[in-house]
Amino acid sequence: MGDMLIRGIPEGLKNEIAKAAKGRGQSLSAKAVDLLRKGLVVEREDQPQRSAWEELRSAFESEGPVTGEYAQIMEEVEAERKRDFGRPIDFGNDDDQE
Question: What is the mean pLDDT of each run of 10 residues along the chain (98 residues)?
């Protein structure tokens, strides 16, 4: 495990973290790591979700622009996916109806 020195923490914030750590039976360092981890999770969740096409495109664009047949197929897949937004889900349970 590595160490990290964080400078410039306001005394009030440090005291608040220390109080929270003591209340949970944790060390100040353990509580700080816990808070940093939780903050990263929240930050990650706040970022917009990318489609599969966007993820694949970014992976392939490192080799150059995505063009040709592959790009056309992925555009069609993405267009079809977008048409599904808001459409009712059909679970295929027609047998359950009386």
Answer: 90 94 95 92 77 73 74 79 70 58
Residue 93 maps to a domain: no
Rounded Cα gap, residues 52 and 74, in angstroms: 9
- Does residue 91 sit within a domain? no
In a domain, 73, yes or no: yes
Structural domains in the chain (count): 2
| Calpha distance 68→65 (Å, rounded) | 10
Give me the amino acid identity at 63: E
Runs of H (alpha helix) within 1-98: 11-24, 28-46, 52-61, 68-83
Q: By residue range, what is the domain housing residue 27?
A: 11-46
